[in-house]
Inverse folding.
């Protein structure tokens, strides 16, 4: 089982706006609030919306955390 303190940081890909590459960043997470749970995600996929974002086919506020 993973220690709860290790789960309070995560690696994320941050979108800084059109024409800029995603940058990898270590983010610090808050602990779970009332009626929330903290999950240890070991893998994830890319949403097609993320691809539209990167191809600048949709507007999106930034900075934002992309899911790849």
């Amino acid at each position: 089982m993973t220690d709860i303190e290790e789960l309070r940081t995560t690696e994320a890909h941050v979108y800084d706006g059109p024409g800029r590459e995603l940058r990898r960043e270590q983010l610090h997470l808050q602990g779970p609030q009332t009626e929330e749970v903290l999950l240890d995600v070991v893998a994830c996929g890319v949403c097609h919306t993320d691809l539209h974002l990167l191809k600048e086919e949709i507007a999106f506020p930034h900075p934002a955390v992309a899911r790849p």
About this structure: The mean pLDDT is 81.
